[in-house]
């Protein structure tokens, strides 16, 4: 299936979860947020939220600096 992740098209296995895609984008364990089709997905739901063909997932990581 085709899903857009952070603005880039990706080919994923059927029923890939939000958690699986986040793990492929970042190794960070904290400071990560996800939005699926413009709706925030709570961290507790990442494992159980499947992606579908045509979905848009944004994975955001906190950045510190000055």
From TrEMBL:
Q: Which PANTHER family match?
A: SULFUR CARRIER PROTEIN THIS
The family database entries (InterPro entries) matched by this protein are listed as: Beta-grasp_dom_sf (IPR012675), Mopterin_synth/thiamin_S_b (IPR016155), Thi_S (IPR010035), ThiS/MoaD-like (IPR003749)
Tell me the Pfam families matching this sequence. Answer: ThiS (PF02597)
Protein name per UniProt: Sulfur carrier protein ThiS
Q: Which organism is it from?
A: Actinomadura geliboluensis
Q: What CDD domains has UniProt attached to this entry?
A: Ubl_ThiS
Q: Which domain of life is it from?
A: Bacteria
The lineage, from the top, is: Bacteria, Bacillati, Actinomycetota, Actinomycetes, Streptosporangiales
Looking up NCBIfam families in the UniProt record yields:
thiS
